[in-house]
Amino acid sequence: MLPARHARLRVLSVFGTRPEAIKMAPVIRELERHSEVASTVCVTGQHRELLDEVLETFGIAPRHDLDVMRAGQSPTGVAAEVLRRLEPVLAEVRPDWVIVQGDTTTAAVGAGLRSHEAREPFPEEINRRIAGVVADLHLAPTERARDNLLAEGTPADAVVVTGNTVIDALALAEPAVPDGLPDEGRLVLVTAHRRESFGAPLQRICAAVREIVAAHPDVHVVFPVHPNPAVRLAAEELLAGAERVSLLPPLGYREMLGLLHRCTLVLTDSGGLQEEAPGLGKPVLVLREVTERQEAVEAGAAMLVGTDTRTVVAAAGALLESPVRYARMAQAVNPYGDGHAAERIVAALCGEPVVEWAPFAAEAA
Fold first, then answer.
1. Distance (Å, rounded) from C-alpha 67 to C-alpha 286?
2. Long-range pairs for 300-305 at CB < 8 Å and ≥24 separation?
3. What domains are defined for the chain?
4. Main-chain dihedrals φ then ψ at residue 102, nearest 5 degrees
5. How far apart are CA 28 and CA 59, in angstroms?
6. Are 168 and 101 spatial neighbours (Cβ–Cβ below 8 Å)?
7. Buried b vs exposed e over 271-292: b needs ≥16 C-beta within 10 Å?
8. Around Cβ 152, how many Cβ atoms within 10 Å?
9. How is the beta sheet containing 9-15 ordered, strand by strand?
10. How far apart are the C-alpha atoms of 19 and 217, rounded to whole Å?
11. Angle of helix 253-262 relative to helix 271-279, nearest 10 degrees?
């Protein structure tokens, strides 16, 4: 059941991190196209500099900025500050809908994304489950996400499969390849930043990077390094100065998008890249033991390889050395969207009929 609404639908969009901003941007842009909707944007400021870059890229001007982050703050501290500072915003806007996205402490929502392992990733999996209890409308990116919600008892009429707005975002920003990268040869994009990758797993990933470039003279690895000291110090110790390995500072969205267009292969523990890369036909090796984005694995666009050095090197080598295997992954069906997710989301918020996203049904037809 849709909530009672004002004469003009009031929608408050709340987000705090760069990944959330990227996925919310197409929805906010679509909301602004509708004269019958009053759209208000509130940011929590969890990824201050990275967040501001995305807002500028997509031309989004927040009306409210909670500015919650402080050095050394725990997830519990973030949650407490978000709740405290959001209350007066809710009182002022009096929204018909509050939209949140993702699985961070700001959102505590995942619209059906589940790894089914409470601590992998942590705290994201817990956040998703919490939000599933309180949300009135679940805008699920895929059929699998919907099925997860239904299995947890969510009413079917409270779930709409829209596709993933990250695919919409790919078409809204102009790619910009970072300077200083080779014009020839193959680029392999590597990212690793999740808590479960800290320590020995990250050391094994770095060892795999060295072996990959040693085995393939035409390959250059690009590793944008997360500023967290647990990532930065390990990457610098193990990879700084390595031949054909570029350690870059954190990149803006347009630069990361440029690397995605330019690269041959992606090795990552990032959730967002698992969704973005298939949209551009780039095979993904997922550096995790479990993933909540199983759709890409089932579609053949991604492969779950963990962090064992030998396994990662073998999987990368198989793709770099076999055009047939590479083409099979690169040409797999994109399970995440057709670029119209934001349109479906806004239609659902307005109570209009929605033709849901079903990629494999479309393939079969």
1. 32
2. 300/328, 300/329, 300/332, 300/333, 301/277, 301/329, 301/332, 301/333, 301/334, 301/335, 302/274, 302/277, 302/278, 302/329, 303/329
3. 9-171+339-364 (3.40.50.2000), 186-330 (3.40.50.2000)
4. 95, -155
5. 10
6. no
7. bbbbbbbbbbebbbbbbbbebb
8. 12
9. 64-65, 37-43, 9-15, 97-99
10. 33
11. 50
Express each pLDDT in 162-202 by its tens digit: 999 999 999 999 999 888 888 899 999 999 998 889 999 99
Between the CA of residue 249 and those of 48, 50, 211, 224, 283, what are the distances in Å?
15, 12, 22, 6, 23
Please provide residue 327's backbone torsions phi and psi, each rounded to the nearest 5 degrees: -60, -35
For residue 224, give the H/E element and its range.
Answer: strand 219-224
Strand partners, 302: 284
Kindly report the length of the chain: 365
Place of tokens 């992954």: 329
And the tokens for 22? 């990227």
Nearest in space to 207 (alpha carbons), one of 155, 142, 267: 267
Q: What's the pLDDT tens digit per position in 87-105?
A: 899 899 999 998 887 544 3
